[in-house]
Fold this sequence. Notes:
The chain has about 110 residues and is mainly beta. The chain has one domain. The chain is globular, with a radius of gyration of 13 Å. About 20% of the residues are buried. Helices cover about 15% and strands about 40% of the residues. It contains one helix and eight strands, in the order E-E-E-E-E-E-E-H-E.
Amino acid sequence: MNTYHPDNWVVIKFDGPDPHYRVLAGWSGGYTSGTSWKLNSGITKVEDHNDFYRFCGSSGSYYDCNKESYMLRMNNQHIWNQLKELHGDLVQLMDEDTDWSSVDWIIS
């Protein structure tokens, strides 16, 4: 089980035959490491902590996401653009003002 601490993040809703939500996380790299991104396996639940949300993934990993860092940046914007190009209206970027505790993470 891994715990990730992204520099920035967004939540994407995937509609279609397998509807679910995922965290698209980004990390700003330095001189030696470069930028990176991850798309989690699918959100199963969220825990609200003081300064961050903990998104639990279906693979068992955790994404501890700072509440002030909900945004697309250079490290994850291109992935969002590719997802939008591939899936069109079947993907939706969730609003940063979403009440994460009220979302039904398991879409049926």
